[in-house]
Known about the structure:
about 200 residues; alpha+beta; NADH Oxidase; four-stranded antiparallel sheet; 4 strands; about 45% helix; binds flavin mononucleotide
Amino acid sequence: MKDLKKIFEERRSVKFFDKDKKVDDEMLSEIINLATLAPSSFNLQPWEIIAVKTEEYKKVLHDEACKQPKVLNAPITLIIIGNKKGYLRENPIWEEKIKLGLTEEKIQGIIGYSEKNLYPTEEKKTAFAARNSSLLAMSIMYAAKYHGVDTHPMIGFNEDKVKEIFNIDENKIVTMIISMGYFDESNQLKPREKRFNYDEIVKEY
Length: 205
Ligand SMILES: Cc1cc2nc3c(=O)[nH]c(=O)nc-3n(C[C@H](O)[C@H](O)[C@H](O)COP(=O)(O)O)c2cc1C
């Protein structure tokens, strides 16, 4: 079992991927299935993933992602999607909760409260989608590292274009994209940049 502390310390945003080292389908699903243990509000899991693997779509995505070379070089780039309406009744997770004993009335109460008080505006709905799916994204990066697979998160892309190309509907946001593969050892990453520490970021009340 790999030390979690080591995974935190060793994960880097890897700019250089070995073009010849593929991530096989089994490994990809292993990573995603591990990452889905991430928490989400009411366990709604308002997220989806598009795995871009073909040269054709990698090129298209590369064009819309500021031509960042890692999108072309990595064997896979994941498009992490958050659903702004993920709390509504059509989410199949509500059926699971019914099996566990939650009543329809309670569910309608939660949805109503969410719509009215928690996510009444577009901004708050977007935040709901982004908050939850970002936890999935981070979990994917750590799950990948656990399996020896490197990643690179990016928000440098044209979201409207990516949504259009990959048929992502208007209720969804593209939270980030994550290129994934194996570090090209012929390159070197710059040393990790400074992190703000406890004293710099924590206010105690
Ligand atoms: C939400 C998010 C968006 C990012 N977008 C980009 C990007 O578009 N292009 C890029 O080169 N790096 C991007 N990065 C990578 C960061 O620059 C990197 O995580 C940071 O410099 C810390 O380096 P490390 O991940 O190696 O520790 C992004 C990281 C995050 C978390």
